[in-house]
Amino acid sequence: MNLFILLVVVLAIIAIAQLTKVYDLSRTLRNSREEEISAADNRLNANAWLVWMFVFFGSVIYLYAKYGDYLPDSASEHGVAVDKLMSLNIWLITVVFFIVNYLLFTFASKYRFNPNRKAKFFAHDNRLEMIWTLVPGITMAFIIVYGLITWNSMTGPASSEAMQIELYSKQFDWTARYPGENKVFGACDFNLIGTSNALGMVTEEGVAAKIAEIDHNIEATEKAIADGIAKGTMPDSYKESLEDQLYKLKRHKQRIMDLKENEMNGVSQWKAGSDDKIVKGEFHIPVGQEIEFVFRSQDVIHSAYMPHFRAQMNTVPGMPTRFKMKPTITTAEMRQKLGNDKFDYILLCNKVCGAAHFNMKMTVIVDSPEDYKAWLAEQKTFGGEPAKKQEETKTEGSDTTMVVASIK
Ligand SMILES: [Cu+2]
Fold this sequence. Notes:
Elements: H1 2-30, H2 39-67, H3 77-110, H4 126-155, E1 163-170, E2 173-178, H5 204-231, H6 236-257, E3 263-264, E4 267-268, H7 269-272, E5 277-280, E6 282-286, E7 291-297, E8 302-306, E9 311-315, E10 321-325, H8 331-338, E11 345-349, E12 361-367, H9 369-378, H10 386-396, H11 398-407
Parallel strand pairs: 1-7, 6-12
Antiparallel strand pairs: 1-2, 2-5, 3-4, 7-10, 8-9, 8-11, 11-12
The chain binds copper (II) ion (CU).
Residues 169, 302, 349, 351, 353, 357, 360 line the site of copper (II) ion.
């Protein structure tokens, strides 16, 4: 089918080229020059300009009417200001668009070639220069200042009442983390990232388990090298690659040994993590409560985009970013407002970050404070039951407990 369309297009181009040639030839036969255009042709072109102007304006108005309100009312407090700023800009652009295009098309039509008309010529006019410099200049300055004021109020520091939620991005999903009762996020470190610990949460058990895993690998690699040397059949290149692997394992272990246990608000960040709640697929936030999102990324730059709250922020590996907002409409209220009981707020990735970028999303549920509390209470903590876990680590083996003791 595609090939067929391509063929038709190519044939059409050839046909047009041939027709032009025939037209040129007929002019030569008639003894008229190419640049001599008849008054009838000029009239036709001038009218075509006007027809096209109406088609163009009509399509723009149609698109505005059809897609102008592509999002429902803002569901966050700052979003109202964003919408106001956006509407003002759209109005200005629309007015300028219609004036400029009206002049462009009507002048082209009205001032078509007329052998009896002579163009007025003047080299310079100070008043005109003033008008077309000052009017756009002042308008632009107004837009920029208004935009900056809105931006600053949106991105300023969160108030002391704000609760924090971490949104963690990686190819290709989102994870939300809530600090527990102590209101402190547990420490994270990329050296501890693994299949069962996607966020790289640092806890005593986590550190011990990772070191035990690395020790096991070091032992196996050392044994492979020793065996190879003993047998005398190991190629040099293979030995080198094993040694390289061994070096990397030891360096990884050292990095974990170097992790320092920091305190925050009087709570050890290694212990703070065990009551953190980690959720996937969907996360809840309470209506009317200021929320400060902290964004982190594991791999590449993603962008956390919540269109219904008019919120967007890049998530950058190695550099936490923030965004504060206060949701004002619960999911239930918005469903009622839109008459759509399947409606859900959404968190999307708005940066093309790889093959499954399109699928990187998470549902956001805005609850009443009571519902939110009930939901949060149901979520499991990272450490499960901390007391029980510590018991297990102690009975597992004395060497891992010793490693942790030596780091501390
Ligand atoms: Cu992404």
